[in-house]
From TrEMBL:
InterPro entries: EGF, WAK_GUB
Residues covered by region (Disordered): 146-186
Record field: compositional bias (Basic and acidic residues): 152-169
Domain EGF-like, residue spans: 266-310
Membrane protein topology class: Single-pass membrane protein
UniProt cross-references to PROSITE patterns, sorted A to Z: EGF_3
Protein localization: Membrane
UniProt-recorded name of the protein: Wall-associated receptor kinase 2-like protein
Alphabetized UniProt keyword annotations: EGF-like domain, Signal
Length: 317
């Protein structure tokens, strides 16, 4: 078993949904007895192909599980502007974990990210704000696409205008792709940390100038919360997309958001109430409250199932 993973569902319960195996204390179905309690139940929506797994009865789609974290597919807020600076398409994302009775919190391993050339965004938590700003004035600000695309013209030829240069850059970007993919340095993409222990956040996305000066190559601004290192900025290819939803679809289908989870969040330490750790396992405290279980050294398995952890067999040759 890989380090940090759980294995094994409760006997008699549906073990998987689509491509995702659901380990106990999580379980599929409300009031089925397949999860530890109502905080750990999942919904399997079979109307998708393959089926998709969601946290409780929410719209929060599950990405994967580990022995201390639950990953969800992240959501993205966006606003798109026409050449006059008016919004023609937008979506605002907020996420609350209040349904889970404090079992889950947003991990501090997440980063708040803003993508765009004329965009500023804030993440609001309990009336406090943090945020960052993405800026750029031309595509080459965010992607080294080769040699100087606007050299001094030969005698008798006119120098390229900014609009002509941007069109050339766009053609070359979609042909070759970005060369500095992944860098999020403030030019076209910025990111900032979040406070530990959050259970709710709201994204406020705005623009200083309505994208008027960058509308030829960047119509939309985006903001989202995701696991640090999981999002790779595609440079100009993320700013100038073939359709407004290309970037949105890429991020929401592949980039995870991390939740920390605990057993009995009202319990502050491994007291006599910490009774979910089964045979050959032990309890350990979590700083924010609650506890988790871990197999003893030399054992593996699922410490929450009745059969507990099993001994490792060593074979000598």
């Amino acid at each position: 078993m890989a380090l940090g993973t759980l294995q094994g569902s409760k006997q008699g319960c549906q073990p998987a949904c689509g491509n995702i195996t659901v380990p106990y204390p999580f379980g599929i179905g409300k009031d089925t007895g397949c999860s530890l309690d109502k905080s750990f139940y999942m919904t399997c929506n079979t109307s998708y192909e393959p089926s998709k797994l969601f946290l409780a009865s929410s719209i929060l789609e599950v990405h994967s599980f580990s022995d201390s974290e639950l990953r969800l597919f992240t959501g993205v807020s966006y606003k798109c502007y026409n050449k006059s600076g008016d919004i023609y398409s937008e979506y605002s994302r907020w996420t609350s974990l209040s349904l889970s009775a404090y079992t889950y919190t947003f991990s501090e391993r997440n980063k708040f990210t803003v993508v765009g050339c004329d965009d500023i965004a804030f993440i609001e938590v309990d009336s406090s704000f943090s945020g960052c700003r993405g800026l750029c004035s031309k595509l080459s600000d965010v992607d080294d696409i080769g040699p100087n695309l606007n050299p001094e013209p030969e005698k008798g030829r006119k120098k390229e205008t900014n609009s002509q240069r941007d069109k050339k850059e766009r053609r070359q970007i979609h042909r070759n792709g970005p060369t500095d993919e992944g860098e999020c340095s403030g030019k076209g993409c910025c990111e900032t940390s979040i406070t530990k222990g959050l259970k709710y956040y709201d994204i406020i996305l705005d623009t200083p100038s309505g994208h008027i000066n960058v509308s030829d190559f960047n119509k939309c601004g985006y903001a989202f919360l995701s696991e640090e290192g999981s999002f790779r900025f595609g440079g100009a290819k993320d700013l100038y997309t073939k359709t407004d939803l290309d970037f949105y679809n890429r991020v929401t289908s592949s980039v995870p958001l991390v939740l920390d989870w605990v057993i009995a969040p009202a319990v502050q330490n491994c007291s006599d109430q910490a009774n979910e750790c089964k045979g050959k396992s032990h309890c350990y405290d979590v700083d924010s409250g609650g506890y988790r279980c871990r197999c003893n050294q030399g054992y593996e398995g699922n410490p929450y199932l009745d059969q507990g952890c099993q001994g490792l067999f060593l074979v000598f040759f």
